Amino acid sequence: MIEKQPERKTLTLSVATWEEVAARANAAAGGTSQGAFVSFTSAELLWQIVTPDRHSLIRALIGQGTLSVGELANRVGWNARAVDAEIQVLANAGLVELGPQGVQFDYDELHVDFRV
């Protein structure tokens, strides 16, 4: 018997126009699954938010569910104050969620999708 592999949850970061975002929203409203997206208006804005340091935080969160800021700081080798400041930016952009237990990232992988 072939075992079915669990489905991986992917967060896709994209560069999209308002029209593309609206089309995805309309398709979702019509019942067509779109997956999880965070869209930016330009590649430059995406890279202003997802800096190399913030990307290292996201990598440490992938597949972990929720981690406290202290645990995340230990995993990346930073102090908690620096992690907290960077996590605030990611939360404001909608890439992570902050809750009473810590930083939540419910995805198994991150995909970045845009055209140049």
Q: Estimate the mean pLDDT confidence.
A: 91
Gap from first CA to last CA: 44 Å
**Amount of beta strand:** 15-25%
Q: Which residues form runs of ≥5 with pLDDT under 50?
A: none
Note the run of SSEs as H and E: EHEHHEHHEEE
Apparent shape: globular
Q: How many strands?
A: 6
As laid out across the biggest beta sheet, the strand order is: 2-1-6
Oligomer classification: single chain
CA gyration radius, whole angstroms = 16 Å
Give the proportion of residues in helices.
40-55%
Number of alpha- plus pi-helical segments: 5
Structural class: alpha/beta
Largest sheet features: 3 strands, parallel
Describe this structure in words.
The chain has 116 residues and is an alpha/beta fold. 43% of the residues lie in helices and 22% in strands. It contains five helices and six strands; from the N terminus they run βαβααβααβββ. The chain has helices spanning 18-29, 43-49, 52-61, 69-76, 80-92; strands at 10-15, 36-40, 65-67, 97-99, 102-105, 109-113. The protein has a three-stranded parallel β-sheet. It has a three-stranded antiparallel β-sheet with strand order 3-5-4. Strand 4 and strand 5 form a beta hairpin. The protein is globular and about 45 Å long. It starts with 9 loop residues before the first strand and ends with a strand.
Keywords:
alpha/beta; 5 helices; 6 strands; globular; single chain; 116 residues; three-stranded parallel β-sheet
Quick recap:
With 116 residues, the protein is of the alpha/beta class. Helix content is 43%, strand content 22%.
